[in-house]
Design a protein that fits this description.
By secondary structure, the protein is mainly β. Strands 1, 2, 3, 4 and 5 form a five-stranded antiparallel beta sheet that branches. A three-stranded antiparallel beta sheet has the order 8-7-10. The radius of gyration is 18 Å and the shape is elongated.
Length: 171
């Protein structure tokens, strides 16, 4: 990650929702939905154009396997609820602590033949609602049936790992 950028999507959503109640922090242009967020000289981000109201601010980490293989660290996505925005005022979030994430590696094979299955969408969700995460870790198996689910919160003891059968049928 370059100084002055961070690989996160930072967005504010009005809660309760109202028209025009969604905006994201300024970011560089890129092909993926999670682009480097632009930071100012004080290493702070700005979400411009918010209407007055109460917002939930989401910090969504990219957590792709290419990031960790290039020496990057996976981070747990964060959520800051109830941020009050007043007209003409700056709302200060303070410091948002981001936690280094865990990874889960696995392989998907056909039960009958034992052959690896490619393009299987995999998700991990906290068992028994252990965490208040909003974005579930997601991965797709490669040609060898291997996958890496990044962004797992190390404070969550158990995850349910599953495949998204409906999305698999689209491949």
């Amino acid at each position: 990650m370059n100084r002055g950028t961070v690989e996160f999507r930072i967005e504010a959503r009005a809660n309760p929702w109202f028209q025009g109640g969604l905006s994201a922090a300024a970011a560089e242009r890129c092909a993926s939905g999670v682009c480097p967020v632009l930071l100012d000289a004080n290493n702070q981000f700005v979400i411009e154009g918010l209407l007055p109201g109460t917002y939930d601010v989401n910090f969504v980490s990219r957590n792709e396997s290419a990031d960790s293989s290039a020496g990057g660290v996976h981070l747990v996505s964060a959520f800051v609820p109830g941020v009050m925005v007043s007209e003409g005022r700056t709302a200060e979030l303070g410091t948002v602590a981001l936690v280094a994430a865990s990874q889960l590696r696995g392989k998907v094979t056909d039960a009958a033949s034992g052959l690896p299955l490619a393009n299987i969408p995999m998700t991990a969700s906290p068992s028994n609602r252990q965490a208040a995460t909003r974005d579930l870790p997601y991965a797709v198996t490669d040609k060898d049936g291997d996958y890496v689910l990044g962004g797992l919160d190390p404070k969550v003891r158990y995850y349910d790992v599953d495949y998204d059968w409906a999305e698999y049928l689209l491949y």
